[in-house]
Amino acid sequence: MSGTKLVVGVDGSAGALAAVRWAARVARARRLGLRLVHALPELPVPYPRADPTYVQLLEAAGTQGRAILAEARDAASGVEAETVLRPERPADALVAESDGAALLVLGTPGLRPLGRVLVGSVTVALAAHARCPVALIRPHAGEDEPSAEGPVVVGVDGSPASEEAIAVAYEEASWRGARLIAVHCRHRDGWWDTGTAAEEYARELLAQRLAGWGEKYPDVVVDREVVAGRPAERLLDFADRAQLLVAGSRGRGGLGGLALGSTSQALMSYALCPVVVARPRAK
Questions:
Q1: Which of 19, 169, 241, 267 could form a disulfide with 107 if both were Cys (CB 3.0 to 4.6 A apart)?
Q2: Which domain holds residue 257?
Q3: What is the pLDDT of residues 23-41, one digit of tens each?
């Protein structure tokens, strides 16, 4: 991935602090800068901007924001972190911050009783429209941090989004010293062809998509998996034992559209490991 810094969006939540700690470890290992960003909340009050009450509320929000950034900086132990307080809405601020970043890192809530993370609209918007890959980190139950063991898993379907995901996955597997599992799911309109010809075609397609990457990253051991089933379900199966899951995003349109593929949203909601969502680079 390009860029010389990791950007972390912080809001004072446990998920955001988990994201800061994860990003700090990555920044130390990769010798990247770390930038912690807090966006001031919109003030839902009927006061004009010149009203003294509005000014007081804005000052209080700034004071709270600086305290949130100070706590986040303390969580980034061992890394000299830059802190930034921005006046825009969170989605607008973090999209702007993602320009030139190596990775935008966001925290998510812990799993709910049914095993699902409630991914907010800002997170979905950023995963769909950020100008760099987006990592989603959630607090873990039973352990302090996400596991640093296991393979890196990437979903491969031949789309431009998948091509960017492959690039990110190889780079991540290389610096982590991890095995890479490249997964292609044979699924069309609700039915699965289990014939030999279809299996051979899928394996050839997967080999074509991975061609050339082995020469660029000769240190990465790759397992190629062709499986039948819905992509989200099968990728989540592999993610159960992974340290990182990488997926493509077909995000499009303006921030208000929040367009993101159903597979990406399912992975963001249910994966037990950190998820990196990669979009095709702008031409």
A1: 19
A2: 147-283
A3: 999 999 999 999 999 998 7
